[in-house]
């Protein structure tokens, strides 16, 4: 499969047609503009992990740290964020995957992915995870944890070391699988068949709905098989059920990234019916999540997976369309968020636990504690990012990228 962009057509006189050059230049400019939309949205989704985990902490639910008071509104907020945050993130990751693989070549792309994902993962496992496990053991000892496990007991589980870094592990596996798939199925004829199939899905709203329902059903079957064969235990809890639940979003995004027209379409303003179906599904998921604890039935869990997959796809379509309308030009804030988002995400989890547990001891109202924890965590993570950006080595281990990055004091606009 040829991975290079097609050059302007050259007529017999040896000079490129000016009309063709102008049209292809315009298409390239539009593509770059669209990438700013997706970059901004991807960074925002990573930062949304702060209110999501803070809401879990102060909702009274069983999480790493648990508020002594139960606040249902914060639990609903966490459910709402969960519906659209990671589905949209993995769709965007899939879009960039095939887009860059076609532009730069599969080998170059996969080497870059393994570097950009693998180095921060190793850094997180060696630096962040031990601190987080130690913090959890202290929280458990103080009675604010979901268990009474000591540090040694927590550290004996590989899944506890992975923690909030699970998405990096999943992305690495997805990218390796996609690289193998592109290499295997990458002939022009087969690729054209895939793109025609993807195009047909968007031809009518009814067909789109059927495709989404089919993807949700397949995901439910995979999730059921995952639990039946106890795959989480077989992988020593390194891979949890989110490995199966996130997979369809990544590969659907990979289909979108096959053609520039697909990226343009998904970033366009959604139809009214998309908003209606998306809102109905999101409301149904949030309502169903509250009932799931009472219905301890396998069929209820599978129905929940179907709703989450369908709602996540529609919510992602809406969010990407909104981002395409709002972020029309690159700016300093967007560039800073894009550069800082991964570092902020890696550090936010233990900081949420730290600030939340300290606030629990003060007896502050959960709603106020939630806001304080969010603000304190964001400011702290931003300061950590700025400090790590001072040296190439610390930039490399925390972001997988050693070149100078955008900081508050050096926020250039990339074109």
TrEMBL record:
Keywords from the UniProt entry: Membrane, Transmembrane, Transmembrane helix
Keyword match Transmembrane helix: yes
Protein name: Acyltransferase 3 domain-containing protein
One annotated GO molecular function: acyltransferase activity, transferring groups other than amino-acyl groups
Upper classification of the organism: Bacteria, Bacillati, Actinomycetota, Actinomycetes, Micrococcales
Species for this entry: Mycetocola zhadangensis
Transmembrane residue ranges: 40-60, 80-101, 121-141, 161-185, 206-226, 238-258, 270-289, 301-327, 334-355, 367-388
Domain of life, per lineage: Bacteria
Domain Acyltransferase intervals: 38-385
PANTHER family recorded: BLR4337 PROTEIN, GLUCANS BIOSYNTHESIS PROTEIN C
Region (Disordered): 1-26
Key word Magnesium present: no
């Amino acid at each position: 499969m040829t991975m290079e962009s097609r050059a302007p057509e050259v007529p017999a006189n040896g000079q490129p047609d000016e009309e063709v050059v102008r049209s292809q230049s315009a298409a390239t400019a539009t593509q770059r503009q669209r990438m700013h939309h997706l970059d901004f949205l991807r960074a925002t989704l990573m930062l949304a992990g702060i209110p999501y985990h803070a809401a879990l902490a102060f909702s009274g639910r069983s999480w790493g740290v648990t508020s002594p008071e139960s606040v249902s509104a914060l639990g609903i907020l966490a459910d709402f964020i969960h519906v659209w945050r990671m589905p949209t993130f993995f769709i965007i990751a899939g879009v960039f995957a095939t887009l860059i693989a076609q532009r730069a070549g599969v080998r170059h792309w996969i080497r870059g992915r393994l570097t950009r994902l693998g180095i921060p993962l190793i850094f997180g496992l060696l630096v962040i995870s031990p601190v987080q496990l130690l913090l959890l053991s202290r929280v458990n000892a103080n009675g604010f944890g979901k268990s009474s496990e000591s540090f040694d007991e927590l550290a004996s589980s590989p899944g506890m070391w992975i923690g909030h870094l699970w998405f990096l592990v999943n992305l690495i596996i997805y990218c390796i699988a996609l690289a193998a798939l592109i290499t295997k199925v990458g002939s022009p004829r087969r690729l054209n068949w895939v793109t025609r199939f993807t195009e047909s899905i968007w031809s009518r709203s009814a067909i789109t709905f059927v495709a989404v329902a089919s993807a949700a059903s397949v995901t439910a079957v995979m999730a059921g098989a995952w639990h039946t064969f106890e795959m989480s235990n077989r992988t020593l809890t390194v891979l949890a059920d989110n490995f199966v639940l996130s997979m369809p979003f990544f590969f659907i995004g990979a289909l979108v990234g096959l053609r520039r027209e697909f990226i343009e379409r998904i970033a366009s303003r959604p139809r009214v019916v998309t908003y209606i179906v998306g809102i109905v599904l999101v409301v149904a998921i949030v309502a169903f999540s509250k009932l799931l604890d009472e219905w301890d039935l396998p069929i209820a869990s599978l129905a929940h997976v179907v709703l989450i997959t369908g709602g996540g796809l529609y919510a992602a379509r809406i969010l990407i369309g909104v981002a395409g309308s709002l972020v029309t030009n690159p700016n300093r804030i967007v560039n800073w968020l894009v550069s800082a988002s991964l570092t902020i995400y890696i550090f936010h989890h233990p900081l949420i636990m730290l600030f939340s547990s300290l606030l629990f001891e003060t007896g502050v109202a959960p709603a106020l504690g939630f806001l304080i924890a969010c603000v304190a965590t964001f400011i702290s993570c931003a300061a950590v990012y700025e400090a790590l950006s001072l040296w190439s080595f610390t930039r490399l281990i925390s972001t997988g990228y050693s070149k100078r990055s955008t900081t508050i004091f050096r926020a250039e606009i990339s074109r």
